[in-house]
Amino acid sequence: MKLQFLFLLFLVLLISAESCDKPGDHLFLEVSHKKSAVNFRNTLKESPEFNVMKYSYFYNGGGVAVGDVNNDGLSDIYFTGNLVASHLYLNEGDWRFKNIAKDAGVEAAGLWNTGVNMIDINADGWLDIYVCRSAAKDPDARRNLLFINRTRSSNDQVIFEEQGAAYGLNDAGYSTQSAFFDYDRDGDLDMYLLNHSIQQFANFNTSLGNLKNRRNPDFGDKLYRNDEGRFTDVSQEAGINSNVLGFGLGVSIGDFNGDTWPDIYISNDYNEEDYLYLNQQDGSFRDQLSTHIDHASLFSMGSDAADINNDGLTDLVTLDMLPADNYRIKLTSGSDNFNKYQLLLKQGFYKQSMRNMLHINQGNSFSEVGQMAGISNTDWSWSALLADYDLDGYQDLFVTNGYLRDYTNMDFLSFAVDMKLDDQDLDSEAGIQELLEHMPKIEVPNQVFKNMDGLSFKDQSKAWGFSKVKLSNGAAYADLDNDGDLDLVVNNINEFAGIYRNTASERKLGNFLKVRLDFQDGRTSAIGSRVKVCTPFGEFHRDLYLSRGFQSSTEPILYFGLGTIEKIDSLTIIWPDGTSESYDYVPINAVYIAKYGTGSKTPKSPGLNPLFVEDELLAFKHQEDDFNDFRVQSLLPKYYSRSGPTLATADINNDGLIDLVCGGAKGQESQVFLGTRSGQFTPIMQSDLALDKDHEDVDLALSDVNQDGFPDLIIASGGNAEEEGDYHYALRLYLNNGAGGFMKEKSFATVLVNAQCLVVKDLNQDGLVDIFVGSAYKAHQYPLPAENYLLINDGKGQFSQVTGLPFASTVVMDAEIADYDQDGQSELIMVGEWEPLQIYSWNSGVWTLEHKSEEKGWYNTG
């Protein structure tokens, strides 16, 4: 009986194990190398002469390109090898592939290959292959390769001929990847070449900013213009930053400002910030990262651009190396450092943080929501691929992970210091070997995030079939079996490449549409086209650019998941030359071939026409001081010293024009600007404001406190830099002299509090404005609340303090005085951190709580 039970248990376990390979368990199923015959392994063999301490990008791995090189209707795969030959696999159907790289002449063996693209560079209808190279000290050993496809029939032997020099594309820089696109709209493909610098320019020092204008042809990025088949380096005249600080790891092409012209986003490793090149439509680009992006990844790696929330605007994701768990975070030495951050800002670098960023396009700028969306921490990540893997209509995110030797590990760094203290020669063969052996691996699974609603993502890695630890780098998506869903191909270090079969179509998770673009009878690439699919339930947008993720490129086909949608109203294409056409009667669950010139002409998109545009009318720039809250209280959730800048408007001199007062940070005086008939603003010197520049202005108001017909100026001080009760926290009143000048009222009530907000309005209905000062926390004593103040106006410019406030110790971030219930009596409305919304009325000296919300939150404004 016992043996029978054990036998039945064995059968149950066996059935359970077999069921793990069935489509019902995972969205993606890994195809074994025995089944596929894809036996490519990017094997790295370290030596004392060549390792990560000699070449910092030793473990960055190889790339993947997918495309139909023999025009048989099946997508083929090219893997780049670093120390091994690259492989080109012909797709033979039924998940079988054959490596033909040697016979086809595309092995590129013997030298360090990095990124790869499949593009039809000569517009003959056959995909060519461009391979980037790096690492070697000899420039000739770094020359990039261009393999021109000489195949002329799907039944012929596939053959390529290397023609890099003939096309002017045998660049000898330290290249990571290329991106082909028609930036000048002249009908041919140009190329952006993503390069990286060397280790001596990666280390931080206090004079890095001096190197920003130091160009280098081997380290800096380049823009090549296609001049009738011969490529010309136009980097400098086109405005490309080709300096020695660039460590390019990611390049994404897309229309980031809605003018239908292709722009460029560059992800830079180490200290140099990313670049956002906006196309000026005259052959040049302008880096406008600081005006469009709030903050960028610090160690920026792979990236991708796509419409994440189906609003028709191109969004952007960039990867970094922040671990997902607290243990790994504490072991990592490369996390954000405040002093380094501040020094970089002072040297002209931009705001950067070590985490993944998800930039949502708002039309004329981006909002970064990576943490809110749940994709900010994926560890040492490389490739980011945005695509609709489950066919529900939203584009999901696939991320490759892993690093063979973690030289940022704090335990390893401690070990290396001990070796140095023991007088061991770290540069000797034995020393290097011992260091390499003690460097830990970062082995984490690749991750995939399901796009839930356009703004939030859910980690579906295990559920979708990605639970094995890997050392993965380049990756690409393609429909390898022509079933309508996107499969994945991944280049791994020291193990077989991964091929993952998507079962979304097989499981009927959603409908789909595949779009092939035939631009000018195939004589010119359709790269740069934008396709909009209109349905009864919304619109979907895709852009045809092939360089995506990290060192990789996708096939030249656009994929749309449609969910339960069963009808397409129309399909609109903006072709690379700007022509717009509409196509009707588009089927679902099929491949639709859209041919240029056969659709109905539609008006060209006018581009974005925002209701508001930024204008530099004021000669004022807020200058934050460099006080570091975290040196005083290291566990603060955020800065509390940076509540500004603040601004108030009124007709200060009664000339019928709006004037402005801008508050300054500690060390910067408040400034007054008088409006002019021409719409400009003229600064007016204010001696009393200049004397008080050591106060930090956190809020200010313009109101006539002494009933003389001219608005006076009240300023609340804060900043958290001084001890609680310091005179720098004084509430200040400046009386208007009638000509736009403000004189400090020395007899004003003494209020010393680390203020957060200021309200100057009539609370007691006597026709005189009163003053409410809301505070948050005691300076240097978070989370202890500071005191709130209410000052009642006597009509002569004097104020008396109201004591016994029931909300004296409430944490107030913002407040307002208004008649919210329309009863003719003003109420005091307050919101704060960890506080509910509260509304108080005050009648005959009696306070009444009129409303208190059930919810508490981190409310910052009301």
Summarize the structure in words.
The chain has 862 residues and is mainly beta. The chain has 2 domains: 28-406 and 441-507, Methylamine Dehydrogenase, Chain H; 629-811, 7 Propeller (Methylamine Dehydrogenase, Chain H), CATH 2.130.10. The protein contains 13 helices and 58 strands. The N and C termini lie far apart (73 Å). The model is unreliable at 5-21 (pLDDT under 50).
Outline the secondary-structure elements.
Elements: H1 2-19, E1 28-31, H2 33-36, E2 64-67, E3 76-79, E4 87-93, E5 96-99, H3 101-104, E6 113-119, E7 128-133, E8 145-149, E9 160-162, H4 164-167, E10 175-181, E11 190-195, E12 222-227, E13 230-233, H5 235-238, E14 248-254, E15 263-268, E16 275-279, E17 285-287, H6 289-292, E18 296-297, E19 303-306, E20 315-318, H7 326-331, H8 338-346, E21 352-353, E22 357-361, E23 366-368, H9 370-373, E24 381-387, E25 396-401, H10 410-421, H11 429-438, E26 444-445, E27 447-451, E28 457-459, E29 469-470, E30 472-478, E31 487-492, E32 498-502, E33 511-518, E34 530-535, E35 538-543, E36 547-548, E37 552-553, E38 558-563, E39 570-574, E40 580-583, E41 591-595, E42 600-601, H12 629-632, E43 647-650, E44 659-662, E45 671-675, E46 681-684, H13 687-691, E47 696-703, E48 712-718, E49 732-736, E50 742-744, E51 755-761, E52 770-775, E53 789-793, E54 799-801, E55 814-818, E56 827-831, E57 833-843, E58 846-858
Parallel strand pairs: 18-21, 33-41
Antiparallel strand pairs: 1-32, 2-3, 3-4, 4-5, 6-7, 7-8, 8-9, 10-11, 11-12, 12-13, 14-15, 15-16, 16-17, 19-20, 20-22, 22-23, 24-25, 25-27, 26-29, 27-28, 30-31, 31-32, 33-38, 34-35, 34-39, 36-37, 39-40, 40-42, 43-44, 44-45, 45-46, 47-48, 48-49, 49-50, 51-52, 52-53, 53-54, 55-56, 56-57, 57-58
